[in-house]
Design goal:
Blueprint (H helix, E strand, L loop, with lengths): L5 E5 L2 E5 L10 E5 L9 H24 L8 E5 L1 H5 L9 E6 L12 E6 L2 E7 L1 E14 L2 E15 L3 H13 L12 E3 L2 E3 L20 H11 L10 H35 L32
Parallel strand pairs: 3-4, 3-5, 5-7
Antiparallel strand pairs: 1-2, 6-7, 8-9, 10-11
Helix pairs in contact: 1-3, 1-4
Length: 302
Amino acid sequence: MLISCMILPAFAEDYYYFQEQKLSAVPEFCIIEFEDPQLPGAPDMLYQITQNAIQEWEDKLVRHTGEKDGWDFTTKIISQERYDDLFSQDTCDVTIYFEREPTTQEERITAGHTYAMWGSADITIFYLEPVWVYTGQTSSINGDIYEIADISHFKNSLDPYNDETIKHEIGHALGLDHYPATTEEITKQNGIYLAPSIMTLSEDDFMIDRMEITDYDIRSLVNLYGEDGINEPDLWWVWDVVFYGLIILVTVLIVKRKFSKKQSRLLRVGSSESKCIRCNKDLQDNSNSICSECLQKDGFGI
């Protein structure tokens, strides 16, 4: 699904997010279990890193808004079989997979990716540490010449930046787009260059030492969903309309059916006088007679 980015100004800032990609309810994150015989401890470590990343997003959103329910994320670790079970009770609004390394050339320099659509998202994290080598090619940025690097292979060890990658991809799952930071927005603290957003995608990425979830990221999500958080659409009135509409429809059909039977009965009687049983005028009420004559006042029918 091709998703375009909407840039909406608010509070003198441009927030970069996918309006049509937003979640429709407070998400349940499902981490899919996996095994790695070459790195037996990798699954548990990555599960914990992921849970910490989800919790950090939640904590910062709650702290900023003071609202808990709208940001009350849930996380569970489930098997692939359980996820595939059609009768599973798991919602899995955001599903997280882990793979050792990319399998296609297009993804070779990708640490992770997210496929999202309205209400749900699938995240894949490539968790092995890449080994970078210089290609001999150069690039010019703002007049400075830099040598281009590429990945030659992957070590059999966890990427030390997995936590950043997971936080970044969760940002996409929540609805955020990349933030095109400029050199001026990259700050230096204690000798470390920090990105202005966990969603930073910049031509100066090589300058960045660390990316964290920043106030800008939190404000972007609040601008997307509102102070109350990710709440289900208020559709109670739709159910009311459907419920009472069905009652009215059933009532009309019943009345129409009875009316149609009465009309057809009277027509049949009126077309065949031989079937008419004479009124018993000694009775005070002849309304049950099938004779049309008895349904007149002078026949004591009514």
